[in-house]
Specification:
The chain is an alpha/beta fold. The chain has helices at residues 11-23, 34-44, 60-70, 84-93, 105-121, 154-164, 173-180, 188-203, and strands at 3-7, 27-31, 48-52, 75-79, 97-100, 129-131, 134-137, 142-145, 148-149, 170-172, 213-216, 220-223. The structure holds calcium ion.
Amino acid sequence: MTSILVVEDDTAIRSALSRGLTERGHAVTVASAGLTGLELVVNARPDLVLLDLGLPDIDGLQVIAMIRAVGEIPIIVITAQDDDTMLVQALDAGADDYVIKPFSLAQIDARMRAVLRRGGSTGGEEEPVVVGELVVDPRSRTATLAGDRLELSRKEFDLLLVLASRPGQVVSRRDLLAEVWQQGYGGGDRTVDVHLSWLRRKLGETAAEPRYLHTVRGVGVRMVDPTSPGDG
Ligand code: CA
């Protein structure tokens, strides 16, 4: 049984979700505002949060940031419109996926299963990935460069792991969007580029003088072992 917290101020949607998800065998807790939702995240420790972005008290993006500050609980955002900018911001803030109103219960259930499956598969027996002096450990979700711990955001870590797992291969922006953000949404190239530039800064390199992260113009990005002669 999955415990789900529904944070939604629209009474009709909230009750429909609560009833429908309960019928599907989930344990459902509800909140009608951001603050009560946050309290329940901390106190009830749900397996997953369904979060409406348009809440009466706090901005949904802030709610995502606050949930992320306390843990890795999967968040699926519910949004009223297909607003790319808003969705990019929500995904960047740490949301795992989204549904757009009106949505069906089957659709939201499928998204929840996918998100929980992904969450469950990250704690497995995956071995650390080593490229040159870079070590990326999926189990502890930590990365070090020449022994120094890198302070990475959740998405930066995911991005680094995908690239480091395929050294020497060019990975397209579309693949990165699909694997790191689990989406192919409009305006996504910029999201990838921005995260890559943050990652580069943390690796102590620039796009003009790359060591590990090499941009292949018009194609994507390639992780290179700069300590291996002939591989640059
Ligand atoms: Ca709302």
